[in-house]
Amino acid sequence: MIIASAQDAADLFGPSFSDSEGETLAVAHLDEGRRLIELVVIEPTARDHIDLPVRRIVEDALKLGSRGLVLAHNHPSGDAQPSWDDVESTRELAETASRLGIRLHDHLIFAGEERCSLRALGLL
Known about the structure:
By secondary structure, the protein is an alpha+beta fold. The chain has three helices and five strands.
């Protein structure tokens, strides 16, 4: 599967959030052609918050030989707009990954039928 657009990512990630009762994070690891290497789903530890584990994501990317990443998480509250923490932690991950030759292509937020792309909003 090639993840070339936000719609491709939405198709991939949508099922990850269908049964989630709390915030869940999914990370798509991609090769240089944006083909999916592996999808990692990080289960929630709290209903309304999930930390973006930058170190774990980068370690996984290095282990898998990822050249790109696409993230997604859900907001059970029903509001797909990114929080300040969502934006800041995504930027931190993008900067860290970039230093290692890994590109963060996008971070999508799902809330019910709505979804939001940080890249499309100009926040990434």
